[in-house]
Amino acid sequence: QSFTVEGDWSQAAFFMAAGALGGNTAVGGLRPDSVQGDRACLELFKAFGAQVSFKNGTAFTSGSALHGIDIDASQIPDLVPILAVTAALAQGKSRIYGAERLRIKESDRLSAIANALNAAGGRVTVTADGLLIEGVKSLNSCKVEGCNDHRIVMAMSVAAIKADGFIEITDAMSINKSYPRFFEDFKQLGGTADVINLG
User: Fold this and answer.
1) Which of 8, 33, 70, 78 is catalytic?
2) Does the annotation mark 78 as catalytic?
3) What are the pLDDT digits (tens) for 167-180?
């Protein structure tokens, strides 16, 4: 018997966000009827205003004029860091709520992504159960803390494509928890990443 293991929607969301922020990405191996809750990112990027289509197991995403939205994150907590990055670069205000459980992940992800985006010139406020985000046109070159959290590191790597220079992110090797090839794929898509493994 042969089986095909479907792709991971929560990881696909990072590169779909890169497409939404102004590139063109195609992420294969996905199923639109997946039981993975994070397939919700498909509709959320559409709601932001990105051009999103799905054909033969591949999600195609391209940039457009993004605008703020409200997001109930109670069933999609792993998407919050990359959705926050997208919201930070979308015109207007966004609200992410129902995300209080993110305070007890690999880091306090609400504070971690807010601090990182604000260090880069974003406008993010932490609430009791989420984030309030006012979009900006671009981010600044800066150094941010990855908080030894793979999703913070990957989210801020995507954020860097809309920065006016390099964003230095600590704890880069935390990606090994879920996506060891992340930076290889990031560079294959045209991104620039110089990874220093300090052990």
Assistant:
1) 78
2) yes
3) 999 999 999 999 99
